[in-house]
Amino acid sequence: MALSARALELLRSDPELHAYVAELEQIGMAFRRAPVGIALAAPDGRLLQVNAALCETLARSADELLTARLADLSHPDDRDADDRDADAQPLRDMLAGRLDRYRVEQRFRRGDGGDVWCELTASLVRDEAGLPAGLIAQLVDVSERRRVEDDLRHAADHDVLTGLANRRRLLRELSQQIERSRRYGDGGALVLLDLDRLKQVNDSRGHPAGDELLVRTSRALAGRVRACDVLARVGGDEFAALLTRATPAEALYVAEQLVRAARAADASVSAGVAPIGLGVGDAELVVAAADRALYEAKRAGGDRAVLGAPRPGGSGP
Question: What is the side-by-side order of every strand in the sheet holding 101-109?
């Protein structure tokens, strides 16, 4: 900061003033050199000062940022009009004196078109009269941490070899579908599929050949289910398809299509279908019903689908 001769003279003659200016210099240096993004904003969210770290995090120049409000920088795909109103509520609470600080994880759109997840911490600055004078916002890039968390969640719910959902995920989705059926009558069905000759392939050609067969079969099956359905690998040679809003006849048709898809991929599967409807039991009963139907398909020679019959008394499939 360049000072005039008169200012330098005043500083030398007034130790308290000198200390105050030195403190301001230190604050300014800390702001500029901070390793995390920091912005000073007006009470309406307009950015008044930004540091280099914030420019780097958002891939935007200081001039560009100083023409925007903080809310304008958030990712446009994350919120509709109602969400924007909800996001603005903490700011309104701060300006009304009900809240001095809030923290949220939020996605921002970078100037280069990329996305960045940040932990946003906003603090209210009050004037001498205690009235809101502005905001201090701090943005910390947490994109890498979120990527690791997403990877861990994906690994917990997906089969490593095929990339399909695993048994844990299927049972969770099945329980939710049963609950929806009880409340809203959505219906649906569970299809269990068993690869008929995986053991022979493993024994004669080795496990790599068996793995290749599993992957090829999973891709063939995936091409015959809808985006709203759940296709899973639930065991060594077992797959399952949870079909939403499907009648028993529709579910049997889909199961037959899955058998044909596997056949076209030089594989053979047997399929058992258990409808999900009003009065259905829990997930274990549905799985047991589908497993009985699958056994009937295998006993009949495999490479086919069988529709399971509901249990008498309406206790489940």
Answer: 47-50, 37-41, 132-141, 115-126, 101-109
